[in-house]
Fold each of these.
Amino acid sequence: MTRTVVRGGLVVTAAEEVHADVLVENGRVEALATPGSQQWAAERVIDATGKYVVPGGVDAHTHMEFPFGGTASCDTFETGTKAAAWGGTTTIIDFAVQSKGAALREGLDAWHAKADGRCAIDYAFHMIVSDVNESTLKEMDGLVGEGVTSFKLFMAYPGVFYSDDGQILRAMQRAGDNGGLIMMHAENGIAIDVLVQQALERGQADPRYHGEVRKALLEAEATHRAIKLAQVAGAPLYVVHVSAREAVAELTRARNEGLPVFGETCPQYLFLSTDNLAEPGFEGAKYVCSTPLRPKEHQAALWHGLRSNDLQVVSTDHCPFCFSGQKDLGRGDFSKIPNGMPGVENRMDLLHQAVVDGHLTRRRWIEIACATPARMFGLYPKKGTIAPGSDADLVVYDPHAEQTVSAATHHMNVDYSAYEGRRLTGRVETVLSRGEPVITAREFTGRDGHGAYTPRGTCQYLN
Ligand code: DUC
Ligand code: ZN
Ligand code: ZN
Ligand code: ZN
């Protein structure tokens, strides 16, 4: 296999920043050395002088080809993983879905059938459990054993993905026993559905009402309830897509009590707000996702949570639906707008912008986007860092390049950008996935099927 040297960059990991040459061999990082100190023979030399060399991003929350509201998210594993690579992400953890009445195994097999042989970067799966019963509880043990070590439950979407408190408690007890991690969509869906009906009866049908009925207090209440159920079950808990400051407060309180409770937020909650949902006409539909965008005042609590480590991970919840033909389903009734936003290509750049803007340090950028998601979901140090023995998933990042985000130039298979026209400082230049160049000086040089299914260990924050 080709030997590659990435020369002269500032290597940034969660733990340190050091100017170093990086030797890559057989798909792994072989060694780091003081720039120029080693005369490594290599077929490929990448000059990273003046650039950062960072671990490939780990996006622990994506939905490719995800069925929702009578349609399906419009990135395939092929288009979505290419777009991820363009944005400096080299591993995704996508959600396989159990259909009600079916086995977990059927859902997992279906997701393998969609993804296997098609991905440009490495991928793994979480399992959405939409039907907690005796047989799915048993199946959870087997899945943990084969590397699907995390299970998403929903307190939202009654009749679709929803689990009641008894089902949640049982799944948590099982995870407490088998080492699995429960990931919670924490919104009180029963109460939200009442508010949705009342809003529609009042004639409030525009996209902005999606944000009004999915109240921050109902995210906080569900977060609180999930924490207490996990405490009773003696299980760890990971709350996905936290957007409300009141929910951050619940996580902070639990962590101060020493509970193994973790929180994820997403770029859309850090950079966008209900102002976007209220854009004229039907434009707000572009920003309909759940949990919803919040008023701007919530952003400070999210940034603070990321700095204080009360929130540990930023993933995208990438779940794109085209404005034309998909978001359209909800014209005249916001509750029929498919929930989800594109973003897998934008995460590393938006978080780098947060470094430029002073919200995060460089190392914290890498920690929340690479190292911690890898540890949280049992992929570290194979993924998430740059160290001898780690997969050579490397990004040469130009911190000075200027770019303007646009649907006209992005690679996601969706007809709009949630960040259209936004100017960002910093851009991905070259991306290696296990030593193979996927992006080379901003040309796609990868191939479908290079990406490997990657079984995971259990959460590395528990003992
Ligand atoms: N939220 C979304 O916005 N989309 C998919 C599912 C979810 O929980
Ligand atoms: Zn430097
Ligand atoms: Zn969710
Ligand atoms: Zn999601």
Amino acid sequence: MTIPSLPDLHAIGASQQPTYLDRAAVDAAVAELGARPPLVFAGECDDLKARIADVAQGRAFLLQAGDCAETFDSVTAVNIRNSLRVQLSMAVVLQYAAQVPVVKVGRIAGQYAKPRSNDDETREGVTLPSYRGDAVNRLAFTPEGRAHDPHRLVEVYNLSAATLNLVRAFVQGGFADLRTVHSWNSDFVRNSRVEARYEALSAEIERALAFMVTCGVSDDALKVVHYYASHEALLLEYEHALARIDSRTGQPYGTSGHMLWIGERTRQIDGAHVELLSRLRNPIGIKVGPSVAASDLRALVEKLDPDNEPGRLTLITRLGAKKVRDALPAIIETVQATGRTPAWVCDPMHGNTFATDNGYKTRAFPVIWDEVDGFFDVHRELGTWPGGVHLELTGNDVTECVGGVGELAEADLAHRYETACDPRLNRNQGLELAFYLAERLNE
Ligand code: PEP
Ligand code: MN
């Protein structure tokens, strides 16, 4: 398998690409990226693929979560720690409930490029290019801010490396110790008005941990977790520059992250994104919205997974709470008819976004939950495994989604609305979702 050249990919045609004016600067950025070491190793991608194969077979559950859009300014120790903290906390609750390993994958260390519905944005009569993520331009609504700057690709690489470095240190250095993680959950249950049944679950986990300790279980399995990085593989220049041949196997891998996914807007069967990812050996996610045609879905899974390889595909459905119960069965049946068993994952975020009267893009916790609930109902009905969730989430106490334990109202959104793109669940909303999920996993 070879990696197609960048000009060949551009000749195929790709949607959602930046319009760079300075070709020499693009070439320089691509050359610099091409000379840098990989961010992840192919062997790690294979490990993740094996874990996702377990998800597909109903032997594990996937928690994929993180920012909608990472920003350069958000790369701080506090943000990374808080994000990991909430994800690991949720994973403990889910793992206890499901009694299967939870595969932890962040939308992290590379999630800097955003597809947009409109190329331009108009404010008070002024029209400028839309914000496409810090990998492309800046949020600031000025002509300089919104100009597409190829040097930012190098910054993405550097900040992804810094993020991964801290993440690796955290998950191996004792931060992820199961007992510490569980004590964060106990705090949540104590300090929030969650229902008594969550207290019971939390207390049960506490007893299980205490029992293990009295048995003398104190090995590394309690202290070290496996955590992987993922992002949408959107920018051809960046992903191509980090596509490398693995020296062990001679196979091409994307080394910008362990798992790469193709977004709802870039999954054209004859487009460059599908072409590039079809050549890389990483585990691949495909976002699937309600308008997908059965013939496209069939062609996509066949092109991206020609060998029916375990763990290769994760289908991330984002159908909306109103449509999930009607649309999901046909999607599952279409894929099953190809003979493939992908990991099925629910993204309850992207089909449920709306604008409030006071001008915020938000999502409502009960509606997010309704889509997850519908996802479980359909999979239980069809006898397939509801393999995981894909969430936009932060470890900080932001006010971007309404509802949940804190009963955030639309009027509260102004308080801490910090996302550069889509609204994220805050820490308490994330944990609450984990406790809800625990009940469905426990059925
Ligand atoms: C996203 O995951 O942030 C995103 C843009 O999703 P989708 O491609 O499903 O719209
Ligand atoms: Mn998003």
